[in-house]
């Protein structure tokens, strides 16, 4: 069996992979368009964004991309929204 040494104090290197979607930079009311995606696919993307940031997102599918500069292109969009407040 190989011996394994445990070492303390070694800093974790920064991740080299850049995030694919700009969730951390989004403000409430901002959105981005996912070309060719449906609402189910966009919901999976938004769920990952929520896990990464804690932000709340709304998803809508079957949209024309015109507001995002993609005239005539179908896809889905994700908006950062206010988190829902739970009332008791």
Overview of this structure, please?
The chain is an alpha+beta fold and 88 residues long. It has a domain at 29-81. It is built from one helix and three strands; from the N terminus they run βαββ. It has a three-stranded antiparallel β-sheet with strand order 1-3-2, covered by helices on one side. A hairpin with a 4-residue loop joins strand 2 (56-65) and strand 3 (70-81). The chain starts with 30 loop residues before the first strand and ends in a 7-residue tail after the last strand.
Q: Helices, strands, pairings?
A:
Elements: E1 31-35, H1 39-53, E2 56-65, E3 70-81
Termini Cα gap: 57 Å
Quickly count the helices.
1
Structural class: alpha+beta
Shape: elongated
Structure summary:
The protein is of the alpha+beta class and 88 residues long. The chain is built from one helix and three strands; from the N terminus they run E-H-E-E.
Task: For the structure shown, list the relevant keywords.
88 residues, three-stranded antiparallel beta sheet, alpha+beta, elongated, 17% helix
